[in-house]
């Protein structure tokens, strides 16, 4: 354990550099650069509001915030797990030549996406202010789902990164799985109808849904949903533990399969 | 008696050479069900032991495919040995492949920080040595140009400058002395010579026997992953010459 911490301190600067690299390279070639982290979610929010609000007859004035809050969480989860999944393969030339603790690769991928995600929360604040959503004390509790989604993304990222080294098919399977996650996350519809029809379990097995519920609750001034909190915590820590175990167990074999 | 710096203990390295590469699930399941998952084992290293004390310079000789580079990678920590243990005390500077951590879209100066971090340097250390690195690499104003526009010589100059800015305890050289033009080559050799003078422990792989004889005082000879000869440079190079005849 002591060695572990010592090793981490030694490579802390590398982690920072890799996180920075992930962010700068993403926006380097575009004119608006980092501003895209704000514009992109705003535009998708408008599109989704037109389609699912206006056309489907949802008249709630705060519906854009409802969509945007979930959409931001989903985008972070999808992007970070996708990049983390490929992180070992995309750094194969480095892995073959220098020694670096390998968890740095998926971790830095998740963290650089997390920084982008945190920046994009600004747009949520702005839209919330425009639609005059009053912040309450419960807003502070938003930190809990925000931390849980980071843990969960890293855990899932570790599992996917390990699997994809041995089976390239994971990349395709995961994008299909992500689609399922998106449609069962109640991003652009109200979950009540699904629950009434007895398909509530579909939402329960999707851990992202539970995180979204609590994030929304804290924005709209409601206490955290205990059931959702338990589901998302259990899932987050379970994926982190399982991910760490299989990653550590298999990491020495990565190089033989790259 | 000087303490042992590099301790390689009965190291063996096994690779699975699957006859066909199975890297997708469908194939894996089909092969698994048909019980066709066979691997050909291949031992790149077999029971290799080396002890080096501070200041000793070891040349690693052998024909192509004898396991020389694998041995260096095991010592550098890139590969984990199947059996046996490796322990290295102090800071290793692996001059294996220069610039393995370079990001093509980054400029030279950004890459100094990135590659420095890859080698485990701290930010303060790099900032402190930043000018010295640029000066040694002779890149001048090109340092602010994305590295993808560099020539291969420029890249290896920068890589060499960053990798050798530390004062390592163990230096791993894999035929990297062929860097850049004759002038820069001389500069590199001079730099490596100053490290020798400070008593660095060296592991050197090269096919050029004169170069090995010039640099090293000890040598081992590998054949098919096994150590066939070990000892002073003169005896081992005599055996090597016999072998290559």
* Biggest beta-sheet profile of chain B: 6 strands, mixed
Largest interface between protein chains, with number of residues from each side: A-B, 26 and 29 residues
- The helix/strand class of chain B is alpha/beta
Helix content of chain B: 25-40%
Report the CATH C-level class of the largest domain in chain B. Answer: Alpha Beta
Count of domains of chain B: 2
Radius of gyration of chain B: 20 Å
What letter string, H or E per element, gives the SSE order of chain A?
HHHHHHHHHHHH
Structural class of chain A: mainly alpha
User: How many H/I helical runs of chain A?
Assistant: 12
Total number of beta strands of chain B: 9
Radius of gyration of chain A: 19 Å
Low-pLDDT stretches of chain A are none
Describe the model.
The complex is a heterodimer of chains A (258) and B (245). Chain A has helices at 2-10, 12-27, 36-55, 63-90, 92-95, 104-130, 143-166, 170-183, 192-196, 200-204, 207-219, 226-257. Chain A has 258 residues and is mainly α. Chain A starts with a helix and ends with a helix. Chain B has 2 domains: 1-91 and 169-179 and 187-245, Rossmann fold, CATH 3.40.50.300; 97-166, Orthogonal Bundle (Helicase, Ruva Protein, domain 3), CATH 1.10.8. Chain B is 37% helix and 28% strand. In chain B, α4 (123-137) crosses α5 (152-163). The longest helix of chain B has 16 residues, at 182-197. The radius of gyration of chain B is 20 Å and the shape is globular. The A-B interface holds A 10-11, 13-14, 16-18, 21, 25, 28, 93-100, 166-169, 252, 255-257 and B 15-16, 23-26, 28, 76-80, 94, 96-97, 100-101, 103, 105-106, 113-114, 117-123.
Descriptors:
A: mainly alpha, 12 helices, 0% strand, globular, B: 245 residues, alpha/beta, Rossmann fold, 2 domains, 6-stranded mixed β-sheet, 9 strands, 28% strand
Layout of SSEs?
The complex is a heterodimer of chains A (258) and B (245).
Chain A (H helix, E strand, L loop, with lengths): L1 H9 L1 H16 L8 H20 L7 H28 L1 H4 L8 H27 L12 H24 L3 H14 L8 H5 L3 H5 L2 H13 L6 H32 L1
Helix pairs in contact in A: 2-6, 3-4, 3-6, 4-6, 4-7, 4-8, 4-11, 6-7, 7-11, 7-12, 11-12
Chain B lengths: L3 E15 L6 H9 L5 E15 L3 E6 L5 H9 L6 E6 L3 E4 L12 H11 L4 H15 L14 H12 L6 E5 L7 H16 L3 E5 L3 H7 L2 E6 L2 E7 H12 L1
Parallel strand pairs in B: 3-7, 3-8, 5-6, 6-7
Antiparallel strand pairs in B: 1-2, 1-4, 8-9
Helix pairs in contact in B: 3-4, 3-5, 4-5
